[in-house]
Amino acid sequence: MEAGRPVSLLKKGIDDLKETWPGEPDRFLEHHIDPFLLWCVKRGASDVTFQTNRAVYSEIYGTLYPSTYRSIDGADMAAVVSRLYGAEALAILSGGADIDLSYEIMTDRFTRTRFRVNMTAILADGRDGVQITMRALPSAPPTMKQLKVDQEIIKHWRPRNGLVLVTGPTGSGKSTLLAAGNRMLIESPHGCGKMLTYEAPIEFTYDTITSNRSLVAQSEIPRHLPTFAAGVRNALRRKPEIILVGEARDRETISAAIEAGQTGHLVFATVHTTGVAATIRRMVSTFEPSERTERAFALMETVRLIVTQTLVPKIGGGRQALREYMPFTEEIREYMLSLSFDKWAAELMQMVPKYGKTMEQAAKEALDAGLIENRYYLVYAQGTKAAQERKEMQEQDETAGKH
Q1: Which of 80, 122, 121, 120 is nearest to 103 (CA)?
Q2: Does a structural domain hold residue 142?
Q3: I need a surface site. Which of 228, 275, 307, 338 has the fewest CB within 10 A?
């Protein structure tokens, strides 16, 4: 027995009732990596994590399972790093930088398995080590129907111009939702015209999605262009109808995206925020105080739809997407522009339930449908209640100040 587990479950090939790789070698060499990764994907792994001095772990429906019997040492890790990136990877990591890339395995002329990869230096048992996180990507983007996206989101997904923002924490499926939206636009009867995407790294490709009225060009940051802001500037010289910015997290990128939306382009971007109101507040806060008012009003004039997504464990396995959203119609934008921008966040919190859907409402629908447990619903219900209490206290303070 070890930690209360029967010895029979610790033999090579079986651990935690999940099989480890039957082809596991005594020492990982470069030619072992692709077969091992394909085996992990075949058994349902969404993520595979290599870490120095630990077994390789696969994440299957949100739970980690060992995929190797023995721990990966420095020599094994060197082979993995070299296979995925090249010999210079260890020097880059030791210099204090992490590495983002995409990795592709071609099983035949028509079939490929793709991964989004991050390599980061860590401390492992008192010495320098590496953690490699690999996210398995589908060969083709899913459809909006497969993701069960609300019809209201689909209805407002393609405005004539402006900004469509998809937000959420890391690992919430923002890129997947964007890819499904792209697929819908590409496959629409009239196509999407010229679409330019700037991603870091490229997660989904559209080679298998055919349309005579769509032309998609994907650029990887920093492989093809140095920054997202440089990508938007590049796009403006290429006459696109649609621009996708993988991440709008700094002032320069947000400014460039707003300007692109103001000049008649439709711009999609992701932001690491949670909630419609928080997204507006976070984007405005990236600007210097002296320019904040001007940039805030430019943002409000440009924004057309904000969708926040998160994933929670689903009853019976898998994960359930919960989405908060609100379309910014012309009437809503005009009303918001009549207010001081420091009142927008509080106002939007009141408007989302009326004109869109809150995360609490999304969680309640999933709970009533028997998709998630009550404890996950309570997380969002309590969060909404706390926000409402903060708003009421703020209004009371303002009223007291007037008197």
Answers
A1: 80
A2: no
A3: 338
**What are 248-307's pLDDT values in tens digits?**
888 889 999 999 999 889 999 999 998 999 999 999 999 998 888 999 999 999 999 999
Which pLDDT does position 384 carry in this prediction?
55
User: Which residues contact residue 360 at a Cβ distance below 8 angstroms, ignoring those fewer than 6 apart?
Assistant: 377, 380, 381, 383, 384
Residue at 1 is within a domain: no
Residue 132 shares a structural domain with residue 163: no
Integer-rounded Cα radius of gyration of the chain: 23
Domain that holds residue 38: 7-137
Boundary of a domain, candidates 137, 170, 188: 137
Do 159 and 22 lie in a common domain?
A: no
Q: Which two tokens mark 385?
A: 């209640």
The domain total for the chain is: 2
Is residue 237 included in any domain, yes or no?
A: yes
